[in-house]
Amino acid sequence: FLQQELRSAGRALGPCPEEPRAPLAREALRVQEQSEQLAQELREVSRNRASLRGRLRELRQYLHVLREGQRFTSLPEPWGRGGRGAAVPIPAPSPCPRSFVAGVIHPWRVSAFERLLWRACRGYLVASFVEMPEPMEDPATGETITWVIFLISYWGEQIGQKIRKISDCFHCHVYPYPESEASRADTMNGLHSQIQDLSVVLEETEQYLAQVLDKVVLALPAWRVQVQKMKAIYLVLNQCSFDVTEKCLIAEVWCPVRDLTQVQDALRQGSYKSGSSVECFVQRIPTSESPPTLIRTNKFTAGFQSIVDAYGVASYQEVNPAPYAIITFPFIFAIMFGDVGHGLLMFLFALWMVLYEDSPSLRQASNEIWQTFFEGRYLILLMGAFSIYTGFIYNECFSKATVIFPSAWSVATMANHSSWSSAYLATHPSLTLDPNVTGVFQGPYPFGIDPIWSLATNHLNFLNSFKMKMSVVLGIVHMGFGVLLGVFNHVHFQQRHRLVLEFLPEMVFLLALFGYLVFLIFYKWIKFSAANSRLAPSILIHFIDMFLFTSNAGNLPLYRGQVPVQTVLVVLALASVPVLLLGTPLYLCCRRRAPRTGHHGPVATGDEEPLLEGQEAGNSVNATKEDVESGGHSPDAEHLDFAEIFMHQAIHTIEYCLGCVSNTASYLRLWALSLAHAQLSEVLWTMVMRNGFVRLSYAGGVVLVPVFAAFAVLTVAILLVMEGLSAFLHALRLHWVEFQNKFYVGAGYKLCPFAFAPDVGE
């Protein structure tokens, strides 16, 4: 009720300036008493104000009725239609006195009211309608409308009764209308004085109501927080169970081991402050249930962890990909978004959000899209920084090359050692620089791509070859790193047989085929130079011949004994498939059939396992240490059978072997999107910004202003927002499907600890 009154008064309820503690029972009674007293006071003041407003509205309506009626009755007879029109009167006998009915009616009901009067009274009346000069509030709806004043003159008591009944049916406000002019003048003077007195009283009531609302604004935020905390506490207490004596509550909860001391201290303090005769205590019990996952984050790592959690919450004690994604995700994004200018704009935008992250206007914005950007500000910051780095590697700044170091190619040396004449230069707009000529090519560029390639007509062929091979190399390294992370899962969950039966075949299959492809790429780069580059064989043909167990006479081998080496590698890769398919199912089947030793029972738990506080009947009766530590990953679980294990392993084998091929091809999106981003930047510069430099006179300077504005808008809208979102989504897919699929299960559920939320819904 208090909050509703604040909203109706146009008051905004601000946040609680301090963080009050959850009140005790006697404090809650005090809050209840104070809030009820304040609500009662507010009800009385609001009711008085509403009564005064209604009375003042009626007096003003009555005053307007008398004023308009005075104008109508002062007209000479016979009357004509006034205002909205009047019914044509039928002359009445002179001895019959004339009477009046006056009031106000809603404008929507005037037409029907007038027609019904005419039909019911057969014209023995004169009705005049006029709009009230002052709009007033409708008490039924609260809207401000312009009422219509009516004045009806009639002859005969029966006609008067009919008019009053019809007025009541149409919810008209009928007011007494004195027949003499002197009486009407006296009534109007009395109304003026009453309106003035009521206005003064209403103003004082409004001031007192404002004071009461000020008290509500000060007290209500703290009361809301206290009540919400009490409701949250009682919600948790209702989930507890009674002990045998029904005097104590037993709570079974998950708690991280490192926070167990804080829980014990809090329970001890609670027992002391409440004056309880029974001390609270914590009992650690093992369990075979899969514990929830708690990953502690800060404002920097929260954005990266949310990306991983969107794929699936990590299973208990599973390797978390988020720390590695802090580097790999911005880097893979930057490969597709490499541009110094675009990366710098993105970096500055994120840096502004980081520097002003404590600003309430940024943090409390209601726009959902803005909240997404703000929560990922550190992710955007790193994406911009890495894009600047890859932009220097590609030597692109808004599609233009930057000359940081002198070019390693010498055109003058080529001109001195060639027979270029004036006629030759006139007929050949493009000239070829031969690196085999001494002094033309002086060595690799110190950092990134040589800027002279931006002027070459074959720069696309060069960059396509470079970026395609780079995508394959980085993709295979990324997938291999994902397979390597699976080792930590196998070791931690004490499934060391999977190191030999899964990890080793997976690495052999990946490295024997695609790791060898990376070797061929680097070997060809190292072995062949500009002098013998025309003799360099095709890696693609060699790779195809490797699977066909053949050799191509037209495609020279890269090294001696290449065919036998490739044959051995393919045989190793094919031999790893049945090991990966049958190794784990056969091992688990043999292990289940082997005789078991030892016994099950409650065991002492380690320091890193989750805990349960309290204990109920039936918990942890046959729980082993391996059950607890593996979190449901134990190979000895009774529900596993050979058919289920084999089916799961067959799916994993098919997915991995086919995925190595498809995932490697999937990393070519790095090349495709990098090429698309560079070409879009070049097209935008050529078709927009270049037009501003066509004329360098005063006219060209004037044209440059709108041209640059269009270039800036298109750069932000297309290259930063749309291309940035596209690169982000592709980087997300590469992490979810190609990287995390190699080791990450993501079948867990989050730990939701009890906490007082800062913004609790009503």
Automatic annotation (TrEMBL):
Residues 24-62 form a coiled coil. It holds the Pfam family V_ATPase_I. Its main location: membrane. One of its GO terms (molecular function) is ATPase binding. It is a multi-pass membrane protein. It is found in: Membrane. GO terms for cellular component: plasma membrane; vacuolar proton-transporting V-type ATPase, V0 domain. GO terms for biological process: vacuolar acidification. The keyword Plastid does not apply. The chain crosses the membrane at residues 331-356, 376-394, 472-491, 503-523, 565-588, 696-722. Keywords: Coiled coil, Hydrogen ion transport, Ion transport, Membrane, Transmembrane, Transmembrane helix, Transport. PANTHER family: V-TYPE PROTON ATPASE 116 KDA SUBUNIT A 3, VACUOLAR PROTON ATPASES. Belongs to the V-ATPase 116 kDa subunit family. Essential component of the vacuolar proton pump (V-ATPase), a multimeric enzyme that catalyzes the translocation of protons across the membranes. Required for assembly and activity of the V-ATPase. This is V-type proton ATPase subunit a. It comes from Cepphus grylle (Black guillemot). The lineage of its organism: Eukaryota, Metazoa, Chordata, Craniata, Vertebrata. The gene is Tcirg1.
